[in-house]
């Protein structure tokens, strides 16, 4: 039973990372109907930039903030000069375009940092917490807190602010939003900025539990996308729940069956959901319609 609970805890931690990535996908999709497959590179850049700043003797907290700001700026540039320019393209063309951006970022990162792996020190030390025989890494607490902070922030932004109402208006009817003086491109840019910032944060908080490298975002991005599809591209809450479930399934599958099936579970879930319920657990029925 102790091992079983350990698998549960590990699953929630990993699932928290998938949830953050999935929420990034949902945030952009809700406003622009664009599926940004470069989301994983935001994670990679967040961790790699933090490692670089720390190596320059920049304090940990300042390094994190600088990394998040730089990745947020990249998200804005991506929307303005790539997605925004091609906003009249088909959804499939936009997906291919974001894949191209992902490959470009990864190639540049490999030239800057090489193909070596880098480690990042935990925020609050290496000594794990022991609760009832279950070992919990201190960094895992930061991952869970990051998920909660992001969800609370997005809920408050969408439900309690005028900006949230503008974002919803652009999502429901871009033309009507324009007629009311709301700029859909600006709201899309804001969505890319939020998605990039949350992705960078996810990359930073997960890096101390493993290692990071120029290609660290590939698998995390795919699993986050699987969680977004699983929960529903239109629902941040659904994406969060799906991310946690995906993490649990991976952890239990690796612990109770074989570690070899760990990475395959995300793809199996994605295939099953697309076959049985393409809209996801909490998704809408118009997934894939044209956007901004």
From TrEMBL:
GO molecular function ontology, one term from the record: transmembrane transporter activity
Keywords: Amino-acid transport, Cell membrane, Membrane, Transmembrane, Transmembrane helix, Transport
Membrane topology annotation: Multi-pass membrane protein
Protein name, UniProt field: Branched-chain amino acid ABC transporter permease
Gene Ontology biological process terms from the UniProt entry: amino acid transport
CC annotations in GO: plasma membrane
Cross-referenced Pfam families: BPD_transp_2 (PF02653)
Organism lineage: Bacteria, Bacillati, Bacillota, Bacilli, Bacillales
Transmembrane segments: 7-29, 49-77, 89-109, 129-158, 187-207, 227-248, 260-276
InterPro entries cross-referenced by the UniProt entry: ABC_transp_permease, BCAA_transport_permease
Subcellular location, record wording: Cell membrane
Cleaved signal peptide residues: none
Record bears the keyword Membrane: yes
Family (UniProt): Belongs to the binding-protein-dependent transport system permease family. LivHM subfamily.
Keyword Transmembrane: yes
């Amino acid at each position: 039973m102790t091992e079983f609970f350990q698998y549960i805890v590990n699953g929630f931690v990993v699932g928290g990372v998938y949830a953050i990535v999935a929420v990034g996908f949902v945030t952009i999709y809700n406003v622009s109907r664009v599926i940004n497959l470069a989301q994983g590179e935001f994670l990679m850049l967040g961790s790699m930039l933090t490692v670089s700043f720390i190596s320059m003797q920049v304090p940990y907290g300042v390094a994190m903030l600088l990394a998040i700001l730089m990745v947020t700026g990249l998200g804005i540039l991506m929307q303005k000069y790539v997605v925004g320019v091609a906003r009249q393209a088909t959804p499939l063309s936009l997906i291919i375009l974001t894949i191209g951006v992902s490959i470009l970022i990864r190639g540049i990162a490999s030239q800057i940092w090489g193909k070596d792996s880098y480690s990042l020190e935990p925020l609050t030390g290496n000594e794990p917490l022991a609760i009832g025989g279950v070992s919990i890494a201190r960094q895992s607490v930061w991952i869970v807190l990051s998920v909660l902070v992001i969800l609370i922030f997005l809920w408050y932004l969408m439900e309690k602010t005028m900006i949230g109402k503008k974002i919803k208006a652009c999502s429901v009817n871009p033309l009507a939003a324009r007629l009311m003086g709301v700029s859909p491109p600006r709201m899309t840019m804001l969505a890319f900025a939020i998605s990039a910032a949350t992705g960078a944060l996810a990359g930073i908080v997960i890096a101390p539990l493993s290692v990071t490298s120029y290609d660290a975002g590939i698998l995390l991005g795919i699993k986050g996308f699987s969680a977004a599809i699983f929960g529903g591209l239109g629902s941040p809450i659904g994406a969060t729940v799906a991310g946690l479930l995906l993490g649990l399934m991976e952890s239990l599958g690796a612990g109770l069956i074989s570690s070899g099936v760990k990475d395959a579970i995300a793809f199996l879930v994605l295939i099953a959901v697309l076959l049985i319920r393409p809209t996801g657990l909490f998704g809408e029925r118009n997934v894939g319609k044209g956007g901004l």
